[in-house]
């Protein structure tokens, strides 16, 4: 007997899910051991041409009625947002349906509630498509590395910002110009705020941290977030001078004592020899460092209808197999309860560019402020003379709070005309 699938949403991703289900129906049936059949598709408005070739009778505006129907076995949610997605998913779970979702915003805000409901009902919730599109990342973190200790997950998880920064680096384009090109190519929305201000990446970082460190309470609100709108051509040039490239990274890391985790999203200067530095255009990549497995790299298309639908179908096959043998594996039974420590406790490095008066004693006074805050200087150089003088400093590793206080005090120096740029620098290969 075929398993019936309810699809919530039939936009770019939903239509691709329908196409793949139809085109690969025989192959999917052989992998699962039983056919998959679309039992209904919930949409906001009927009558629109969706190019699916499906019987119009399959479409409905009654999403709640669809997910609670007795003949529905599995639910795929690709409508996005918090509501009504949350209510529909919880209703489906309560009705005994396993769920596949691509909803990063919902999982980052209220994943704990959804997973608790799934555990109680004994059903699956899979969500590979919520982070990094087609890249098989979340299940390796959850399953393949379950016997290992993950120390750090660091990645490019937003293709729009990576495209913009890549254009600024390779072509010398400005932020506004690069954003406009991204919009013209369909990489960025008309309102790009979620991407360029880091909200999208922060939601994904919360999901990654929860899986990597088995701590269920991490939400998007716990993620320190900075976007790329303040990245300048000067920042790009400074990064090049240091042998670095600027990337917007999601970074999830255990503290040195293992008692807490840090979760952050912000631009960084990344050494060009780091594997993530070579990720160009709108691609995504995630770099994982684990105790026994060592360094692992996951790379591929991070967005788009077909790549996202591919991840959805992979999850759909997994939950269908589990349901066929009555072997759901709800997430979250083990929770380390590790707290998220404040950004100020994070150990990092700063690159600071100061517009300064070109007179004796400037460097000594600046160095004194660094020293007073317990921050040592790794290297320093002066660019320009007279009114164009700029002092560029890179610190050794220190708590972010101490570095931030240092910058705040530099602002107050009368010999510092302005703090032209502040950006964190990520180490690689043991550099501190």
Weakly predicted, low-confidence segments: none
Mean pLDDT, as a whole number? 92
The percentage helix is 25-40%
Overall shape: elongated
**Structure class:** alpha/beta
Please tally the helical runs, counting DSSP H or I stretches of 4 or more residues.
14
Proportion of residues in β-strands: 15-25%
Q: What is Rg?
A: 24 Å
How many DSSP E strands?
Answer: 17
Distance from first to last alpha carbon: 60 Å
Main beta sheet, described? 11 strands, mixed
Descriptors:
432 residues, alpha/beta, 11-stranded mixed sheet, 17 strands, elongated
Description:
The protein is α/β, with parallel strands linked by helices and 432 residues long. It has 14 helices and 17 strands. The protein has helices at residues 12-23, 25-32, 63-67, 85-94, 104-121, 138-144, 159-170, 175-184, 193-196, 199-213, 233-241, 305-324, 362-372, 400-411; strands at residues 3-8, 36-42, 59-60, 74-77, 98-101, 125-126, 150-156, 224-225, 244-254, 261-271, 283-290, 294-301, 347-356, 377-383, 390-395, 398-399, 416-425. The strands form 2 sheets. Strands 7, 8, 9, 10, 11, 12, 13, 14, 15, 16 and 17 form an 11-stranded mixed sheet that branches. A 6-stranded parallel sheet has the order 3-2-1-4-5-6, sandwiched between helices. Strand 5 (98-101), helix 5 (104-121) and strand 6 form a beta-alpha-beta unit. Helix 7 (159-170) packs across helix 8 and helix 13 (362-372) packs antiparallel against helix 14 (400-411). It is elongated, with a radius of gyration of 24 Å. The protein starts with a strand and ends in a 7-residue tail after the last strand. The model has no long low-confidence stretch (mean pLDDT 92).
């Amino acid at each position: 007997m075929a398993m019936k699938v309810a699809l919530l949403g039939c936009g770019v991703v939903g239509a691709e899910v329908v196409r793949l289900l139809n085109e690969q129906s025989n192959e999917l049936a052989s992998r699962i051991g039983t056919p998959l059949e679309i039992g209904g598709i919930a949409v906001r408005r009927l009558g629109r041409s969706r190019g699916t070739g499906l019987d119009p009778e399959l479409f409905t505006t009654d999403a709640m009625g669809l997910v609670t129907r007795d003949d529905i076995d599995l639910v795929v949610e690709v409508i996005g947002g918090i509501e009504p997605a949350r209510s529909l998913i919880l209703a489906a779970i309560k009705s005994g349906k396993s769920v596949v979702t691509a909803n990063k915003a919902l999982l980052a805000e209220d994943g704990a509630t959804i997973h608790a409901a799934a555990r109680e009902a004994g059903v699956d919730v899979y969500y590979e498509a919520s982070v990094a599109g087609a890249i098989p990342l979340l299940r390796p973190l959850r399953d393949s590395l379950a016997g290992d200790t993950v120390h750090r997950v660091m990645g490019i998880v937003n293709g729009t910002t990576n495209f913009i920064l890549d254009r600024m680096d390779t072509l010398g384009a400005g932020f506004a110009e690069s954003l406009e090109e991204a919009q013209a190519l369909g990489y960025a929305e008309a309102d790009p705020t979620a991407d360029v201000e880091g909200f999208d990446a922060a939601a994904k970082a919360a999901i990654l941290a929860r899986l990597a460190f088995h701590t269920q309470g991490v939400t998007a609100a716990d993620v320190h977030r900075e976007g790329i709108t303040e990245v300048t051509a000067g920042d790009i040039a400074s990064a090049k001078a240091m042998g670095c490239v600027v990337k917007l990274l999601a970074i999830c890391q255990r503290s040195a004592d293992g008692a807490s985790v840090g979760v952050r999203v912000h631009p960084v200067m990344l050494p060009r020899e780091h594997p993530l530095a070579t990720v160009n255009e709108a691609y995504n990549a995630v770099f994982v460092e684990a105790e026994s497995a060592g360094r692992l790299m996951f790379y591929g298309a991070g967005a788009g209808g077909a790549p996202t639908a591919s991840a959805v179908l992979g999850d759909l096959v997994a939950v269908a197999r589990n349901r066929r043998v009555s072997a759901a594996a709800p997430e979250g039974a083990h929770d380390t309860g590790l707290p998220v420590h404040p950004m100020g406790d994070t150990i990092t490095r700063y690159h600071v560019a100061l517009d300064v008066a070109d007179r004796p004693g400037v460097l000594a006074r600046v160095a004194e402020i660094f020293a007073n805050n317990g921050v040592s200087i790794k290297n320093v150089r002066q660019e320009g003379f007279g009114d164009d003088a700029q002092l560029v400093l890179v610190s050794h590793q220190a708590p972010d709070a101490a570095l931030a206080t240092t910058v705040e005090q530099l602002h107050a120096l009368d010999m510092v005309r302005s703090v032209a740029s502040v950006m964190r620098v990520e180490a690689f290969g043991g550099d501190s």
